């Protein structure tokens, strides 16, 4: 992500190389760009959960990141 971009401001804890596996428990594999956008959208102030896979050296971690949707 480009520093200072909308994605950088929205997801400051994501790092280059992170893989998003699911959005609100919906796997993203095989989904279109529009389907992914629709999964991200929601009521302002509501939570969105992203399941992330991060490779750190030889280790791979999976964790859930919870964010609050902005207006």
Defining traits:
71 residues, alpha+beta, four-stranded antiparallel sheet, 2 helices
Structure characterization notes:
This protein has 71 residues and is of the alpha+beta class. The protein is 18% helix and 38% strand. The chain has helices at 6-10, 33-40; strands spanning 19-23, 26-27, 47-56, 59-68. The longest helix has 8 residues, at 33-40. The radius of gyration is 12 Å and the shape is globular. The mean pLDDT is 81.
Outline:
It contains 2 helices and 4 strands.
As laid out across the biggest beta sheet, the strand order is 2-1-3-4
Low-confidence stretches: none
Radius of gyration: 12 Å
Number of DSSP helical runs = 2
How much helical structure, as a percent, in the residues?
10-25%
Mean pLDDT across all amino acids: 81
As a percent range, the share of strand residues is 35-45%
Element-by-element helix/strand order: HEEHEE
The count of strands amounts to: 4
Let me know the largest β-sheet: 4 strands, antiparallel
Distance between the terminal alpha carbons, to the nearest Å?
21 Å
Oligomer: single chain
**Pairing-aware structural class of the strands and helices?**
alpha+beta
Q: What is the global morphology?
A: globular
């Amino acid at each position: 992500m480009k520093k200072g971009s909308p994605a950088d401001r929205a997801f400051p804890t994501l790092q280059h190389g992170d893989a998003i596996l699911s959005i609100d428990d919906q796997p993203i594999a095989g989904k279109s760009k529009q389907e992914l956008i629709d999964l991200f959208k929601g009521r302002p102030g509501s939570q969105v959960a992203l399941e992330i896979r991060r490779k750190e050296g030889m280790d791979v971690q999976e964790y859930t990141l919870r964010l609050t949707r902005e207006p």
